[in-house]
Amino acid sequence: YLVSCMFEEAASLSYSTLKRLCNCKFDESVDKDMVEDMIECSGMVLLQAYKELG
């Protein structure tokens, strides 16, 4: 049960992070590559959590 809750929390947090990153308007001072890396990492966490949850 504890492990399942951890995956549910990981899925929730990564989804929230993805949503915020995709809806945010970044100015020119923000490194676009870094934002793309954060989106990619959040997506990988979300997919892994969903995979583990079944």
TrEMBL record:
<dbReference type="InterPro" id="IPR034571">
    <property type="entry name" value="APEM9"/>
</dbReference>
<protein>
    <submittedName>
        <fullName>Uncharacterized protein</fullName>
    </submittedName>
</protein>
<dbReference type="GO" id="GO:0015919">
    <property type="term" value="P:peroxisomal membrane transport"/>
</dbReference>
